[in-house]
Amino acid sequence: MKTDDRAIRVREVRRQLARNGPARTRDFDGDFEYITLPERDCDLLRDLLIAEQARTVVEVGLAYGSSALAVGEALVSQGHAEPRHILIDPFQKDMWANTGWDLLCSAGLDLISTLVPERSSDAFPQLIAEGLVADAAFVDGSHVFHEVFLDLYYLRKVVKPGGLVILDDDDKPSVRTAVHYFEVNLGWTALPDPFAAGTWRRLGDDAGGGSVPRCRALRLPEVVSEPRSGDFLPF
């Protein structure tokens, strides 16, 4: 299948998902709308990965598949010989009834995608041992602080120097606090508002607080270095 045809097929599945929702959802009112990354944010994610010329992307959290379809569209739109998309989701079968994975398959993205049905804290060490190197990552897994921190710790070993780590739900204090460590102590740098045209949320659901884009992208340093223990800065 030609590059243009593959991208058109993915875009059509994306449009149908945004318009009609998934075939199956959990038994909660508005669950799809609450969980899924909105279509506009997915467009921005796709465009950012294309601008980065990303060939290999690792994603934490598949759920209903909206962000994964956007990542897949970015990968097949560029004409790379061997694009690769690694998805980590231990709950895809039991919690999400394989809805996200089935959508990827219907879009033809199973040809470039690998689903790892394990917790990210278990999956990443094995992927690192296998020598995985990614150009970028999209993180939308657990939002418990120590789980987010572990994802970022391992992604520092997986994403190439100068690559991108993109996060959903940056408005959540647990996510922002974990990210702040890597900004303050390891030189990760936030890109200037690549998601400014997307969804905005109040910080920590505080009605009196400021608002930020729900997604944020950070660039890793071009040179990897280990800080000394005495160099630690509170975050």
Helix and strand pattern: HHHEHEHEHEHEHEEEE
* SSE class: alpha/beta
Helix content: 40-55%
The total of beta strands comes to 9
Indicate the multimeric state. single chain
What is the global morphology? globular
User: How much strand content do the residues show?
Assistant: 15-25%
* Alpha carbon gyration radius: 17 Å
Major beta-sheet overview: 7 strands, mixed
Average predicted local confidence, pLDDT: 96
- Count of alpha and pi helical runs: 8
Contiguous low-pLDDT stretches (5 residues minimum) are: none
Report how far apart the termini are. 49 Å
Main sheet strand line-up: 3-2-1-4-5-9-6
Descriptive account of the structure:
This protein is an alpha/beta fold and 235 residues long. It is 40% helix and 17% strand. The protein has 8 helices and 9 strands. The strands form 2 sheets. Strands 3-2-1-4-5-9-6 form a 7-stranded mixed sheet, with helices on both faces. The longest helix has 18 residues, at 3-20. It is globular. The N and C termini lie far apart (49 Å).
